[in-house]
Amino acid sequence: MSDNYQMPRSEVTLTIPIMPKILMPIGDATEALDTFYPYYRLPEDDYEVVVAGPEARLYHTVLHEIPPNPDVPWDITQERPGYHLKADIAFRDLRAEDYAGAFISGGRAPEYIRYDKDLQRCVREIAEAGKPIACICHGIEILTAANCIQGKRVTTVPKCAMDAEQGGATYVDDDVVFDGLLVTGRGYAENTVVVKEFIRLLKAAED
User: Fold this and answer.
1) So where are the chain's domains?
2) φ, ψ (nearest 5 deg) of residue 101
3) Given CA atoms 164, 181, 23, 78 in this order, what sign does their dihedral have?
4) Percentage of the chain with pLDDT > 90?
5) Contacts of 107 (CB under 8 A, 6+ apart)
6) What is the pLDDT of residues 16-35, one digit of tens each?
7) Superfamily (CATH H level) for 21-66+74-206
């Protein structure tokens, strides 16, 4: 065999499937567990999580809990620094037609990002298009601002019950509430059930 002989190359074409996109709006003080569980879990079922923020930059997440400290008890949630997460896109560049659904996490971020008109528009259009939405904890403030939970049954952390009712929803004091294509959870302890139901709704929408 000649020293110059080369084995013929086989042409291999790899087809990478396009994953449906899930919108995840965040901002500074987004709650870490609320956010990172679905952020890593949804791609396991072939969904691409697109993180959006007021700007496409790095954001601070936080840890929210009422610590069991009998010496100096807390009446409300204590906030401590968490990991960082980068937003892929700014709210102003969002297009609802690009997304198969939305996951709205909690923390303190919803208190201020809910005022963003582009975020309100995109979330409202996703809801109006009949696409699944999951929401945890303070995320209900975004759904209320987007005016897309009127007549819905929802749950949230109890201190946000009024936010839900001001958005025209009925607050239910349960851990998880299902209403059509909307699934809401009280807090990150309900993430497993909320994400499981959200994925079921996404899969059903694809059929």
Assistant:
1) 21-66+74-206
2) 175, -175
3) positive
4) 82
5) 29, 30, 31, 32, 34, 35, 61, 62, 64, 137, 138
6) 568 999 999 999 999 999 99
7) Class I glutamine amidotransferase (GATase) domain (3.40.50.880)
Q: Which pLDDT belongs to residue 63? A: 92
- pLDDT (tens digit, 9 = 90+) per residue, 54-101? 999 999 999 988 887 778 788 888 889 999 999 999 999 999 999 999
